[in-house]
From TrEMBL:
This is Putative competence-damage inducible protein. Belongs to the CinA family. Pfam families: CinA (PF02464), CinA_KH (PF18146), MoCF_biosynth (PF00994). It comes from the Bacteria. The lineage of its organism: Bacteria, Bacillati, Bacillota, Clostridia, Halanaerobiales. Signal peptide: none annotated.
Length: 413
């Protein structure tokens, strides 16, 4: 089945609000195996909404709209749907009672313009709105499913979870099980990853594979349809094993895993302790590591040492090292890692130093240049990376990369 989302509201086109509804709906549709082919935004103009609906009817089986179901003059969705399908708007007396009861419970007098919310295109069913006054619209006509919901996220999400997802499952997927698994990778870009598994991605039969790039990592969502959960999982496992043969070294976790969660498990399982010394990341790594409950069992301390003096006083970095190689150097990163490990008396320590920008760079040491180090009883290793982007992006990518390097080292212990 092919779905399309239409978000309605001039405020979306003006950039006054961000459309998070489409993203969320798209995720929910993917979870039940419904393909989303188009997302369209249109302003509060009846003719343009009609034109958009006309295009959607031609290319989609399921049309989902958000917005334009309120009581004001610029709320035009119900009228546009009725006109597009040549249907009359019919007052639903039960809806009118529900809307009046809502206002009574809130202690407000219902305005006359709220009456329009009790009207539905002929043949449509109302979608209960437990979070507001605007009921949704569910219409099955001529082989098309039209679903209209308010633009307010909490109202839309409640309708999707309580009514729409169960309805779509029952209508299209009653005899099938849909299972998904997200494989998470780090240390390789999206284009490089796709190049390695290009032939596997071309086979989009069952299960399907969807690459999902995000900051500092690439995800692969495997979705299988089958007659039983066991069969679906077997399909996913088979495809995952095929992927592991190509990209196993980059896979760090699954579904809701994060690098900090994976590292927390590894440190706990191996009974190891850790300390951090951060310059360019400003405590971000320590924050991520300590965001996991129980982190006090393995995280001993963290030092944020931006100035050279702080590196000398708190981490025992040699003044000669800073003068000869500079604060942003592999030598300084190594001494930071070794210094915090000795001071904290931990099994392992990590350090970062670099130029997050936007200023402070040079031809020799440009913005985005970062040095990292990992120290343990076996020695110290340093790593050099060059990242692009904003200050926050450089900081996050640095934290992501050092945590991934730490993960790999812990796997070998």
């Amino acid at each position: 089945m092919k779905a399309e989302i239409i978000t309605i509201g001039t405020e979306l086109l003006l950039g006054q609000i961000v459309d998070t509804n489409s993203q969320w709906i798209g995720q929910k549709l993917a979870e039940i195996g419904i393909d989303l082919y188009y997302k369209v935004a249109v302003g509060d103009n009846k003719e343009r909404i009609l034109d958009t609906l006309d295009h959607s009817f031609k290319r989609a089986d399921i049309i989902i709209t958000t917005g334009g179901l309120g009581p004001t003059q610029d709320d035009l969705t119900r009228e546009a749907i009725a006109d597009a399908l040549d249907l009359n708007l019919v007052k639903n007396e039960d809806l009118l009672i529900e809307i009046k009861n809502y206002f009574d419970k809130m202690g407000y007098q219902m305005a006359n313009n709220n009456l329009k919310q009790a009207y539905l295109p002929q043949g449509a069913l109302p979608i209960n709105n437990s979070e507001g006054t605007a009921p949704g619209i569910l219409l099955d006509k001529d082989g098309k499913i039209i679903i209209s919901m308010p633009g307010v996220p909490i109202e839309m999400k409640t309708m999707m979870q309580e009514t729409i997802i169960p309805y779509l499952k029952d209508k299209y997927l009653s005899n099938q099980i849909i299972k998904s698994r997200v494989i998470k990778t780090c240390g390789i870009g999206e284009s490089s990853l796709e190049e390695i598994i290009d032939d596997i991605l071309e086979d989009q039969s069952n299960p399907t594979i969807a690459p999902l790039a995000s900051q500092g990592e690439v995800k692969l969502r495997l979705t299988a349809k089958a007659n039983s959960e066991k069969e679906a999982l077997e399909l996913i496992n088979s495809k995952e094993n095929e992927l592991k043969e190509r990209i196993g070294e980059y896979i760090y976790g699954y579904n809701d895993d994060t690098l900090e969660k994976v590292i927390a498990r590894l440190l706990s399982e191996k009974g190891l302790t850790i300390a951090t010394a951060e310059s360019c990341t400003g405590g971000l790594i320590g924050d991520r590591l300590t965001s996991i409950p129980g982190s006090s069992n393995y995280f001993e301390r963290g030092v944020i040492s931006y100035s050279n003096q702080a590196k000398i006083e708190l981490l025992n970095v040699k003044e000669d090292t800073l003068q000869e190689h500079g604060a942003v150097s592999s030598q300084t990163a190594k001494e930071m890692a070794q210094g915090i490990r000795e001071l904290a008396n931990t099994d392992i320590a990590i350090a970062t130093t670099g130029i997050a920008g936007p200023g402070g760079g040079s031809l020799e040491k440009p913005v985005g240049l970062v040095y990292m180090a990992i120290a343990d009883k076996e020695g110290i290793e340093s790593y050099e990376y060059k990242f692009n982007g904003s200050r926050n992006r450089v900081k996050y990518l640095t934290s992501q990369m050092i945590l991934n390097l730490l993960r790999k080292k812990l796997l070998c212990k």
